[in-house]
Amino acid sequence: MTDTDDAPAREILTWDAFGEATRDLSRAIVADGFAPDVVVAIARGGLLPAGAVAYGLGVKSCGALNVEFYTGIGTVLDAPEILPPDLDLGYLPGKRVLLVDDVADSGRTLALAVRMLEGVGADVRSVCIYTKPGSVAMPDYAWRETDRWIDFPWSARGSVIEEDTGGEASA
User: Fold this and answer.
1) Are 54 and 40 contacting, i.e. CB atoms less than 8 angstroms apart?
2) Please, how many CA atoms are within 13 Å of residue 79, restricted to the half-sphere of its CB?
3) What angle do CA 88, 92, 96 make, to 5 degrees?
């Protein structure tokens, strides 16, 4: 995908750069001395980064917290919402939790998830591949900052349902 003169500039993360980013982040977490007991992804965007970082850190215990906020490019709900299925919060008190997402854009999703996990007594650190300059919450670890819309390799092409229906998602 390339930028055109009339389209806004985009940050394009390739699969190779994704691999470099998650290895760099894993090394930074190790160098900082944080050894998580469990890696928790903020789904959906954090699922692939969380898996890659968990492998990078040798952590086998993983979970996901399902949060919806962005409904499309530049379109958001009034506030992030937790979706089912629920993460087993009963496992987390006293655990060192690494919370992973793809980007801290507004930071509201990250802030909600950190509050929720700390609220049950977890020692939480957070990591995102990207941060945006206006984020209200910044992760403890980040790979890059950008003010551009980010095309992630796992989501840039949309769903195959949209592809098969000419861009119209159907239920």
Assistant:
1) no
2) 5
3) 140
